[in-house]
Amino acid sequence: MSFKGLKPIVYGGREVWPLIEGGKGVSATNHMSSGAWAAAGGIGTVSAVNADSYDAEGKIIPQVYKALTRKERHEELIQYAIDGGVEQVRRAYDISGGQGAININVLWEMGGAQQVLEGILERTKGLVTGVTCGAGMPYRLSEIAARFNVNYLPIVSSGRAFRALWKRAYHKVSELMGAVVYEDPWLAGGHNGLSNAEDPLKPEDPYPRVKALREVMRKEGISDEVPIVMAGGVWYLRDWDEWIDNPELGNIAFQFGTRPLLTKESPIPQDWKDELRNLEPGDVLLHRFSPTGFYSSAVRNSFLRNLEARSDRQIPYSKVEAGEHTVRLDVGVKGKNFWVTPKDLERARAWSAQGYTDGLRTPDDTIIFVSPEERDEIRQDQADCMGCLSHCGFSSWKDHDDYTTGRLADPRSFCIQKTLQDIAHGGPVDKNLMFAGHAAYKFKQDPFYSNGFTPTVKELVDRILTGD
């Protein structure tokens, strides 16, 4: 018996539980977790963002880039992504044993996203039920879904964003829209769709936002049977009691992103799993350091604190003496002409004395101060760029036309591909970006995980279905 009579939904022609595994970026969900989630009767999600491939012995093939130019490395990246995605889908499908369903998740802002998605779907016909896609405005998603006859599940954070996608493209392929994922920008982990109209420090209640999304869908003639998937902050189903069977909202499903990280099948390294058990409320930071330009949420570890500190060591400058910029900067910028305020000159000298001796310009006419080691790492990472995003603020890469954003590379950001690959494959959890949703502190509070207990995916799904 499931919580409050939660009923299965029909998806991809079969009955599945309305429980969806969130597809987490680089290798944080793979065939083991998503295949097991589907086998338990839910919708498992393979991440198709630079997924792992395996050699003949079953070992993960490290993604090493041999080409000299960014553009050629970008081609290598696309090939790795397609091969890895295909491998993950095939394995997940085998594990699912024909139960539940397998989706793939793609970041629209990923470099070569369309090529990667088409390349995977071409080679996995009949295995993938649907594609979830967010981070950006994926207008082309519906036409790709139509070409391969799979469902598509756009990820949006507002009714307004959905309306724009529907009017421009999705109304032409309405029959394949499997669900609409509402990703709460204040609660979800990873990249999210916080817009300029919203305050990152003032979370809004998701209920009225989801109700407004349903109203937009109804206005466009979309049946209440098409579920809205609540994503972000979902832990216990009992917390969402009033959402289930609620005529105001129509059909609702729930996405679990953070909870499946701590399962036996979860592919993340043990150190990462251990760290999740120690988080307190407020340990996950909504920040804007990502090279995508989007807000995102991650654990506030040393890696993020270093980025915060780096941005704090920042002063505006002008190339000519003007206004309050009356003194020349004499540290960090050998012999170059930068004018700053007297107060900022003092601050810059103090940072230099602390060992932050190198000034790096940002695209916003400011200078940040870093240590020589940091400077070398930033420059090396920028030089090694393999074009993993469609637009990268950190390296000024763009995946089309002239292959540059035309802006100065931003040293306040970081190489996201490097750090996500590293943490997923055993690199130090404190020195890398660790995405997590804002409810991650519940691992420490939830009695289910006491005495170091780690459930299988099946045990987790069964537990979720009780309301806990």
Radius of gyration: 23 Å
What's the overall average pLDDT, rounded? 94
- Major sheet characteristics: 8 strands, parallel
Name the strands of the widest sheet in spatial order.
3-11-10-8-7-6-5-4
**What is the fold named in CATH at topology level of the largest domain?**
TIM Barrel
Task: Describe, in plain words, how this protein is organized in 3D.
With 468 residues, the protein is α/β, with parallel strands linked by helices. The chain has 2 domains: 3-268 and 443-465, Alpha-Beta Barrel (TIM Barrel); 302-431, no CATH class. 31% of the residues lie in helices and 16% in strands. It is built from 13 helices and 18 strands. It has helices spanning 31-39, 70-96, 113-123, 141-148, 159-168, 206-219, 270-276, 302-312, 342-353, 372-383, 416-424, 442-445, 457-465; strands spanning 9-11, 14-16, 19-21, 43-47, 101-107, 130-134, 151-156, 180-183, 190-192, 228-231, 252-256, 284-287, 295-299, 314-316, 327-328, 339-340, 358-361, 366-370. Strand 17 and strand 18 (366-370) form a beta hairpin. It starts with 8 loop residues before the first strand and ends with a helix. The model has no long low-confidence stretch (mean pLDDT 94).
In short:
By secondary structure, the protein is an alpha/beta fold. It has helices at residues 31-39, 70-96, 113-123, 141-148, 159-168, 206-219, 270-276, 302-312, 342-353, 372-383, 416-424, 442-445, 457-465; strands spanning 9-11, 14-16, 19-21, 43-47, 101-107, 130-134, 151-156, 180-183, 190-192, 228-231, 252-256, 284-287, 295-299, 314-316, 327-328, 339-340, 358-361, 366-370. The chain has an 8-stranded parallel beta sheet with strand order 3-11-10-8-7-6-5-4. A 3-stranded antiparallel beta sheet has the order 9-13-12, with no helix packed on it. Strands 14-18-17 form a 3-stranded antiparallel beta sheet.
